[in-house]
Amino acid sequence: MVKNLFFIFFLCLLTFKVEATSKSIISLSLNSKTAKELLKVVDASTLVLIEINDVILAPKSKMFIKRPSNPDSNFVMSLVQGKNAQNYAPIIADFLSKKEDILVEPEWPDFIKELQKKSPYVLGLYSTCPRLVVPLLQDIQNRTYDKLKNFDIEFTQKILGKDRFVILKEEVSPEYYKGILFTGTSNAKNTFYEFLRMTSINPKNIIVISSDPASIKNIYAPLKPLNFNFYGLYYAKIYNMEARPNPQIVALQKNMLLQGRWMEDDEAAQMLGSGKAAN
Questions:
Q1: Fewer Cβ close by (within 10 Å): the C or N end of the chain?
Q2: Could you give the C-alpha distances from 74 to 20, 59, 192, in angstroms and in order?
Q3: pTM score, two decimals?
C-alpha cells in the first residue's frame, strides 16, 4: 500500500515542474524525519496552510477508512455527486451535523503549536463541496471551528484585525473565518491565491500540507511567478489507518442514512446486537 502511494505521488509530480524555489515531499506521520525537518524551515516569514479534512480530521466511523478495498469510503460523496443529489440534501445536512470526527494523528495539536511558536500565519483550509455549501456554509464554518477547538487546535485568529472576511465574490463566497479558509463555491487554488493578493501577505516561505498531491500542485500553479520558497508536504497518514470496517455495520449505516438517520459504529453495532435492525 505504501509503495503504491509513493508511485501515485510521483506520477502526479511528472507534470509538476519543480523549480529551485519549490520542493515536494511525502510523509506518512508527524513523527517522521521528514515532518520534523520541515519544522526547521518555519520562521517568522513563513505561511503554513494545512488542509483540515483527511489531514487533521477524519470521520470517526470505520466506514470511511480510505483504502482501495473499501468502496464505501465514498458513499456519502456519491450521493452528493449523483443525479438525485438535491433529494439527498436534507440527509447530507443531517449527516454533517451528527458525524463525529477524530484526529488523524493525536500529535496534531502539539505540531500546530510548534508551528505557531515560529510563524504568525498558520492557517487551515476547508475545501467545501459546491453542491452542499450553498445552504450550509455558515453552519459548516462554526461546526468546523468548534470541532478543532475541542481538540485544542486553533489557527491564526485574526488577519488585518478581522476574524472573518470575504475573500472572493462567488455564488457562495470563499471566506476567512478565525484562521480557516473556506472555499465556498470556489476552489482551494483560487481561494488561497486571492487571500494572498487581498491581504498583501508576502511570506518568504509557503508550506502547504495536504493528503492530495494534485491539490498541492493546483495551489502552487498560480504562485509560480511569485518570489518565495514553496514546500508541498503530501501527508499520507489517512491512507494507512489500521482500522477495518465491519461489513454488517456499514450495510446498516448506509440503510439508515438513506432513511435520514446517521449512526456511528457503536450505535449500529448495538442495534445489530439487539436484533432491532431487522425491524
A1: C
A2: 37, 12, 26
A3: 0.88
Report the amino acid identity of residue 168: L
- In tens, the pLDDT along 34-60 reads 999 999 999 999 999 999 999 999 999
225 by Cβ neighbours in 10 Å (0-12 / 13-18 / 19+) ranks as exposed
| Grid cell of 259 as nine digits | 432513511
Q: What is the SS3 string spanning 138-183? A: HHHHHHHHHHHHHCCCCCCCCECCECEEECCCCCCCCEEECCEEEC
Of the candidates 179, 145, 185, 141, the residue with the CA atom closest to the CA atom of residue 162: 179
Q: Which domains does the chain have, with CATH numbers?
A: 2-60+100-245 (3.40.50.1000)
Residues of the chain with pLDDT under 70: 1-21, 85, 129-137, 275-279
- C-alpha triplet 265, 104, 49: angle, nearest 5°: 135
